[in-house]
Design brief:
Blueprint (H helix, E strand, L loop, with lengths): L10 E5 L6 H10 L6 E3 L3 E2 L14 E2 L2 H9 L3 E7 L2 E6 H9 L3 E5 L2 H10 L4 E6 L3 H11 L4 H15 L7 E4 L3 H15 L7 H12 L1
Parallel strand pairs: 1-7, 1-8, 2-7, 3-4, 8-9
Antiparallel strand pairs: 3-6, 5-6
The structure holds adenosine-5'-diphosphate and guanosine-5'-monophosphate.
Adenosine-5'-diphosphate (ADP) binds next to helix 1, helix 5 and helix 7.
């Protein structure tokens, strides 16, 4: 991906209803990218580890006490309580990557995304939508990670969450996976061609140096 020198990385916030396909799309986005260009931020959570999840890879699994301590240290870019558990985005790691010129992807819920927008308005906010409520139900059931009660709660929440869509820059409907992944990749590419506030100085410095 062409970029100009000394340009900080971009922060992509991928959110949307539970089961919309955020995790699946993010995984593909990172897998298909050149190493060191774009990385997924690993969140911290107090929820129980699910079968197959790995500490430090899926999440950093911590106790409620450690999580609260980190909040008091100002260690999160955002944090939220989602369905009774705490989730948060470790601040230092994300900012360090961005300053190294690496793009960072946050896969977080909608309340988290809105908080990130307050502290990092230059982020690029992408809303992932399922094609329909019935498909969303099927996917949540098929994922096999949640009880029927949790699925019903997550579905009920989806309509509320939709009301925040206008806070986002892009919306991607996750019908056919390949198409959805390609659309998210297209957003990343387009954002790297955006004329930003500091572009004039960056380019002047670069081209003067080379002239
Ligand atoms: P989220 O991270 O938004 O909660 P997931 O990525 O876990 O959602 O996806 C929910 C379920 O739907 C998973 O079982 C996943 O394999 C499946 N899924 C995701 N995207 C698609 C798609 N485009 N077509 C069919 N199944 C999908
Ligand atoms: P799960 O428990 O299914 O992994 O995630 C539940 C919800 O929490 C998902 O909507 C997921 O996107 C969200 N989530 C994961 N990490 C974070 C985070 O760091 N901050 C916030 N606000 N939400 C998160």
């Amino acid at each position: 991906m062409a970029s100009y020198d000394k340009h900080p990385g971009k922060l992509f916030i991928i959110s949307g209803p539970s089961g919309a396909g955020k995790g699946t799309i993010c995984k593909r986005l990172i897998e298909d990218s050149d190493a060191g260009k774009i990385e997924l931020s690993i969140s911290m959570t107090t929820r129980e580890k699910r079968v197959g999840e790995v500490d430090g890879k899926s999440y950093y699994f911590v106790s409620k006490e450690s999580f609260i301590e980190k909040i008091s240290e100002g260690g999160f870019l955002e944090h939220a309580e989602v369905y009774g558990n705490y989730y948060g985005t470790p601040k230092e790691k994300v900012l360090a990557k961005l300053s190294e010129g690496i793009d960072v992807v946050l896969e977080i819920d909608i309340q988290g995304a809105l908080k990130v927008k307050e502290v990092y308005p230059n982020g690029i906010f992408i809303f992932i939508l399922p094609p329909s409520m019935s498909i969303l139900r099927k996917r949540l059931t098929g994922r096999g990670t949640d009880s029927m009660e949790t699925i019903d709660m997550r579905l009920a929440q989806t309509l509320d969450e939709l009301s925040y869509i206008e806070e986002y820059d892009y919306v991607v409907v996750n019908g056919e996976l390949e198409e959805a992944v390609n659309r998210v990749k297209a957003v990343v590419t387009a954002e790297h061609s955006r004329v930003t506030k500091n572009i004039k100085k960056l380019l002047m410095d670069k081209y003067k140096e080379e002239a």
